[in-house]
Amino acid sequence: TMMTRGTSRVARLTMGGRLFSAVKGAAAEGEKFPVMGVRWRSSLTLGEKEQVNNKNSEDGGNKEVVASYWGIKGEEVKKEDGTPWKWNCFRPWETYQADLTIDLKKHHVPTTFLDKLAYWTVKSLRFPTDVFFQRRYGCRAMMLETVAAVPGMVGGMLLHCKSLRRFEHSGGWIKTLLDEAENERMHLMTFMEVSQPRWYERALVFTVQGVFFNAYFLAYLASPKLAHRVVGYLEEEAIHSYTEFLKELDKGTIENVPAPAIAIDYWRLPADSTLRDVVMVVRADEAHHRDVN
Questions:
Q1: How deeply is 192 buried, as exposed, middle or buried, from its count of CB atoms within 10 A (0-12, 13-18, 19+)?
Q2: How far apart are CA 179 and CA 94, in angstroms?
Q3: Which residue in 81, 95, 110, 230 has its CB near the most CB atoms, within 10 A?
Q4: For residue 20, pLDDT beyond 50
Q5: For the chain, what is the mean pLDDT?
């Protein structure tokens, strides 16, 4: 209710000042940040956020513990073993064990004009990606997931509106597509912990996502079948990219570091899992999205 130009400008300046002060103070204490030198607040666990806020309280700052994106203290959630749940970007009932029994060579042969259009559109997009990222598979995965999380949200949104307009059920497709978008977003949250994107790569994300979102939105309005075919072929390329990622890990070209904590909790992986295990489950997810689309 206060979003006028003046108040929004003050809010932006205030938030920017707080962010700068927080980063400056953390840098002075020698804290490490995995992404762009800054550990973004949205990627912190609940425990880490409480430590930050408690520290601010000791310094005479705001004593209220902020534990969610909207600045509202969230509900306390616990794991099955009774220990506190530390993530606010997903909940325990959203976790699962990935099915690794997938067919890596499965391919939908393009037969119709729309199939061929979707196939060659995706193939044409792969070339500049290979040139730009080359063998930096961590950042390639980050870019891929910022794009792959868009179709499910766009499709789910349009089917949702269609269901409202026509007063009819969706056959479960709204939830399926939104779950796909959320799963792809969790892939991004995971690779943010292991990749070091450069400033121009982050800028590229803004550009690519803006163009792709609007293009996919129009394509879905024109032909949902074409839109889903594009996603299917995009997922085929994702499977290929993650397979190459695994080969580089096996060769030792890329260090097989321990799996991020967020990945261990999301996919219910063993505590001693590595980056290779994470790539395996992500590739399995992509194969499932390929088959659905």
A1: buried
A2: 10
A3: 230
A4: no
A5: 78
pLDDT digits (tens, 9 = 90+) for 171-216: 899 999 999 999 999 998 888 887 777 777 778 888 888 899 999 9
- Which two three-digit tokens encode residue 237? 């390329």
Q: Which two tokens stand for residue 221?
A: 């309005």
d(CA 126, CA 121): 9
Assigned architecture for domain 105-292: Up-down Bundle (1.20)
Q: What is the pTM of this model?
A: 0.73
pLDDT digit string, tens, across residues 185-197: 999 888 888 777 7
Which residues are within 8 A (CB) of 191 and not within 5 positions of it... i.e. 6 or more apart? 138, 141, 142, 145
> Where do the structural domains in the chain lie, given as residue ranges?
105-292
* Joined tokens for residue 59: 């310094």
Query: What's the 3-state SS for the chain?
Result: CCCCHHHHHHHHHHHHHHHHHHHHHHHHCCCCCCCCCCCCHHHCCHHHHHHHHHHHHHCCCCCCCCCCCCCCCCCCCECCCCCECCCCCCCHHHCCCCCCCCCCCCCCCCCCHHHHHHHHHHHHHHHHHHHHHCCCHHHHHHHHHHHHHHHHHHHHHHHHHHHHHHCCCCCCHHHHHHHHHHHHHHHHHHHCCCCCCCHHHHHHHHHHHHHHHHHHHHHHHHCHHHHHHHHHHHHHHHHHHHHHHHHHHHHCCCCCCECCHHHHHHCCCCCCCEHHHHHHHHHHHHHHHHHHC
Asked if 264 and 272 count as a contact pair (C-beta separation under 8 A), the reply is: no
Residue whose C-alpha is closest to residue 262's, from 150, 187, 178, 179: 187
Q: 122: closest CA among 154, 153, 149, 144?
A: 144
For range 53-58, the mean pLDDT: 51
Residue 178 amino acid letter? L
Q: What is the pLDDT of residue 191?
A: 86
